[in-house]
Amino acid sequence: MKRILLLILSILMSFILLFFFHKKKNSIRVETIISTHISNDNLVYNVEVDNILCPYNKLNNMYYFSTSDFSKYDIFFHSAFDVKYIIYGIDDNIYHFLVYDDKYYTVVSILVDSIPVINIYDMGYFSNNALSSRSDIIPIIQSENEDEFVGIQIINLMQNNGAKYFTSIGNLSVRGASSTFFQKKSYKLKLENDLGVLNVSNDKVWVLDALYADPSKVRNKLSSDLWNLINDNQKINNDLSTQFVELFINNEYRGLYVLKEKVDKSVTKIQDDGLLMKAVGHLDSTMIERLFNNDYSIYDNKILNFEVKNYDKLSISSFLKKIKDFHYNNRNYDSIVNTFDLDNYINYKIFVSLLCGEDNVTSNQYYSMVNSNSKILVTPWDMDLTWGSFWNFNRPTLSEFIWDKDYDYNWLDESIFGEKDDKTFSLLKKRYWELRKNVITMDTINSYLDSYKDILVNSGATKRDSERWYDYDVVFEIEQIREWARKRIFFLDEYFK
User: Fold this and answer.
1) Number of other residues whose CB lies within 10 A of the CB of residue 25
2) I need a labelling partner for 327 at 20 to 30 A (CA). Which of 11, 23, 253, 389 fits?
3) DSSP 8-state assignment for residue 31
4) Is 20 helix (H, G, I), strand (E, B) or coil?
5) Are 207 and 173 in contact (CB under 8 A)?
6) Is 364 left (phi over 0), alpha (psi -120 to 50) or beta?
7) Residue 458 near residue 114, CB atoms below 8 Å
């Protein structure tokens, strides 16, 4: 008797629910559900919005779609049955649908994300999934490359000029030495064709930065955005384009990432006889001594602390000679002018001083030459150990702020400026006070930090990422960076007086 009463109550509640939302949203026709049994089968196996397949997060039982106006798109639920649906609830940016046929119903939730979504599929997923029949998804073929061959689906409907949906094929590989030790990996995407989306320049090679060791999730983006402002007097524009995204691989949610350009020819503008090197370790005194004695060779694509990216024999000889003369002449003004693009060099020194980028002084940067006769251009990279963050190898996801060591005059003199002469210091001082007018200001930094906080918190992206990987409080972290930046600027003002 008790079971019968519960069944009757369930039926009554279902009809009341359907009637209520039919009245609330009368533009949707609601059919009578014959039975109220929840589906034991997979009533819905894919969701399509405006002809775009939505990735699915098994952790929170949610489909994802990226747009600023969800109401204008058509929704289609892939099913083996003839199904209908109604919206029965909206919680912030999550739409809940009751999907039903003449026997069963199920609940489907779609998270309308304010951050672009990237979904990457491998061969196995395509061949064993209904996606293989889709004509608008490029079919995957086996690649001889040892990296994983993938299909890339990008949903970016946040732009004002309408829907943006992209598909491509390419190679996916794990990138970064530290990334191999972390559960959450950073990736390199190499596409078959140029693709200009997500406010990132038109390019074939992108990097998906996992942000794993940075609980604030904003240090790299804040640094990149400020570099673009500080570096605006360059003859060669080596700006860094970045964009927050949420990543799926084979419909498995991987969390919050930053999509950014790989530093290559498109960023550094090098020619065929140019050069591109990445400093992957610090240039210590032993390496400099080897440089003076010509005791080096290219082995496993590395020379000293540099990883060779693009070069020819003439350009690499010219590069090594310039670096050798620069250190041999104690890094004074004349050696700087003969070695580096002067504006770029001054900008980089001010930039690293502001960030207190101890890990970016002679490491985590790219050196490039447009051709073998050109001066060296410096481009920053991997700026997660900045803005007061201190590396703890045993607890890499713990944000440890340094509040004293960062303001040490000796560190700034020795690590950043080296054995500077009065002329070099005069240029640094002049450029610093130029930037203090409207770039190196708390108004500028606060504006960036506030915009990041709004994006990451309001979208729920950091909450989802935290649930997927480890606990962190992005609001607390951003406020710590804000306070650290205020003290840092005060210190630099005193230094450059």
Assistant:
1) 12
2) 389
3) P
4) helix
5) no
6) left
7) yes
Does the pLDDT at position 45 exceed 80?
A: yes
Q: Give residue 431's pLDDT band: very low, low, confident or very high (50, 70, 90).
A: very high
Angle at 251 between CA 205 and CA 95, to 5 degrees: 115
pLDDT band at residue 337 using 50, 70 and 90 as cut-offs: very high
Residue 199: the pLDDT is 52
Pairing mode of beta strands 389-390, 400-401:
antiparallel
Residue 322, Cβ neighbours under 10 Å: how many?
18
Lookup result for tokens 């952790």: 59
**Could you tell me the residue ranges of all domains in the chain?**
2-48+72-107, 117-224+237-261, 268-496
| Token pair 């409080």: residue | 473
Strand partners, 340: 376
Query: Which residues does residue 63 pair with via DSSP β-bridges, in sequence order?
Result: 56, 110
Q: Choose between 22 and 454: higher pLDDT.
A: 454
Angle at 110 between CA 105 and CA 113, to 5 degrees: 175
For 88-145, the pLDDT digits (tens) are 888 888 999 999 888 888 889 999 887 888 888 765 554 445 444 444 333 333 333 4
Residue whose C-alpha is closest to residue 399's, from 178, 221, 210, 211: 211
Q: Looking at 392-468, which runs of residues are DSSP E strands?
A: 400-401
439-446: which pairs have CB atoms within 8 A and are 24 or more residues apart? 439/226, 439/229, 439/230, 440/230, 440/350, 440/354, 440/489, 440/492, 441/489, 442/482, 442/485, 442/486, 442/489, 444/226, 444/229, 445/222, 445/226, 445/482, 445/485, 446/482
The b-or-e profile of 240-264 (16+ CB within 10 A means b, else e) is: bbbbbbbbbbebbbbbbbbbbbbbb
Q: Give me the amino acid identity at 247.
A: L
